[in-house]
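stage 2 :: seqdesign
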C-alpha cells in the first residue's frame, strides 16, 4: 500500500509525523487487523485497497481508524444492496485514480512551489509540516465543495437523458485538440520550458472548453479530449481553441477533430467509434484547422448552425438578408481511415459574418 507507507524502522520521523497530520491518526492496524475490525473479509478488503491504488504491504502495521471506517462504509453499501460488489470496486478505483492524480499535482506543483525557498536555517521538510497544517482544512473543504458541484452537474446530465440506456450510451460531439510537432518540440526545449508550455496549453484549453459549455474529459500533455451535448457548442470550442493558440507566439500550431455520434461513458471517460473517429480526424487535420465528420456536419446543418451547401446559403441570404449561420463547411477528399473504413471529412470554419 504505497500511499500508507511500509515499516516504520527506517522511515524519517518527520515523514511519519506528516502522515499522521494528514491522516489525522496514528498507524495501529495491519491489513488483517483492519479488515477484521471492519468486519470485512480480507479478500474483499484487499480488492478495495488495490482498487484505490494502494500497494500490498504484507502485514506491516500501517493502517489507521480511518482505513477501518472506509472499509466498513464501502462494504456497508454492498450489504445494504445499494451497490453491487463490482460497483463498489469501481467506486474505489475511480476515486483512487482521480484523487491520486490530484495529490501528485498538488505535491509536484503547488507544495514544491511554496516550499522551494525555505526560511534561513530551515529545511524544506521543516517548512512543509506547518504549511500543510495551515492548508489542510481549507483544501479539504474546497475539495468537497468542488466534488459536490461536479456531482450535481453530472446528476443533472443524467436526469436529462431520455432513459437509462441514454445515460450510458449518449449521442454527443467528441473533440480532440492536438499540438502539432510536439515530439520534435520536446527534444528542443528544456524540461522546465516544456512543462510550462504543456501547462499553458492545458489551462487555456480547459478554460475555453468549460467557458463555452463543453466538458473536459482529460488532458494528455499535447492533447485534450472534450465533449459537448450540442454540435454547435463543440464546433465553437474547436474554433476558439485554434484562434486562441494562433495568437500565442509561444505555442505551436493546433489541429482539431470533431465527430458526432453515440458515445459510451464510463468512470468519467468516453469510449466508442465516435471517439476513435474524432482522434483519427485530428491526426489528418491540417495545421490550425478543424475537421469534422459527416454526422457532425449533418448535426450542424439540422441545428441551423452551418449550411451543407454554400450555394443554398447564398440564396437564403439573398432572400432573407443577413445569414444566420455561424459556421461554414467545406467537403474534403474522401479517404480510408484505419479501422473505420472510408470517411469524408469536412473542414469547419467560421463564417465571415460570425467572426470576431
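stage 2 :: out
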Amino acid at each position: 500500500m504505497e500511499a500508507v507507507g511500509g515499516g516504520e524502522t527506517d522511515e524519517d520521523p518527520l515523514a511519519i509525523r506528516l502522515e499522521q497530520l494528514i491522516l489525522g491518526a496514528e498507524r495501529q492496524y495491519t491489513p488483517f487487523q483492519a479488515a477484521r475490525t471492519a468486519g470485512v473479509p480480507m479478500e474483499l478488503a484487499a480488492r478495495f485497497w488495490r482498487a484505490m491504488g494502494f500497494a500490498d504491504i504484507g502485514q506491516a502495521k500501517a493502517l489507521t481508524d480511518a482505513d477501518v471506517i472506509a472499509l466498513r462504509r464501502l462494504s456497508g453499501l454492498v450489504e445494504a444492496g445499494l451497490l453491487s460488489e463490482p460497483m463498489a470496486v469501481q467506486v474505489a478505483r475511480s476515486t483512487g485514480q482521480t484523487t491520486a492524480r490530484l495529490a501528485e499535482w498538488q505535491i509536484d506543483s503547488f507544495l514544491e512551489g511554496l516550499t522551494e525557498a525555505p526560511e534561513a536555517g530551515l529545511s524544506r521538510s521543516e517548512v512543509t509540516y506547518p504549511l500543510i497544517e495551515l492548508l489542510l482544512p481549507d483544501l479539504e473543504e474546497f475539495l468537497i465543495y468542488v466534488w459536490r458541484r461536479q456531482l450535481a452537474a453530472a446528476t443533472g446530465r443524467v436526469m436529462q437523458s431520455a432513459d437509462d440506456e441514454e445515460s450510458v450510451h449518449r449521442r454527443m460531439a467528441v473533440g480532440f485538440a492536438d499540438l502539432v510537432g510536439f515530439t520534435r518540440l520536446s527534444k528542443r526545449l528544456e524540461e522546465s520550458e516544456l512543462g510550462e508550455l504543456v501547462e499553458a496549453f492545458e489551462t487555456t484549453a480547459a478554460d475555453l472548453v468549460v467557458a463555452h459549455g463543453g466538458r473536459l474529459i482529460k488532458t494528455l500533455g499535447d492533447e485534450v479530449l472534450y465533449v459537448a451535448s450540442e454540435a454547435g457548442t463543440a464546433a465553437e470550442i474547436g474554433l476558439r481553441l485554434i484562434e486562441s493558440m494562433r495568437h500565442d507566439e509561444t505555442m505551436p500550431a493546433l489541429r482539431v477533430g470533431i465527430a458526432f455520434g453515440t458515445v459510451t461513458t464510463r468512470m468519467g471517460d468516453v469510449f466508442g467509434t465516435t471517439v476513435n473517429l474524432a482522434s483519427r480526424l485530428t491526426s489528418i487535420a491540417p495545421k490550425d484547422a478543424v475537421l469534422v465528420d459527416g454526422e457532425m456536419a449533418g448535426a450542424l446543418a439540422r441545428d441551423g448552425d452551418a449550411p451543407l451547401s454554400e450555394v443554398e446559403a447564398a440564396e437564403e441570404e439573398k432572400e432573407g438578408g443577413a445569414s444566420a449561420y455561424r459556421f461554414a463547411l467545406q467537403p474534403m477528399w474522401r479517404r480510408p481511415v484505419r479501422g473505420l473504413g472510408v470517411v469524408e471529412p469536412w473542414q469547419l470554419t467560421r463564417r465571415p459574418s460570425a467572426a470576431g
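stage 3 :: structure notes
- The beta strands are 169-179, 215-219, 223-228, 254-266, 269-271, 289-292, 327-331, 335-337, 341-343, 346-350.
- The mean pLDDT is 84.
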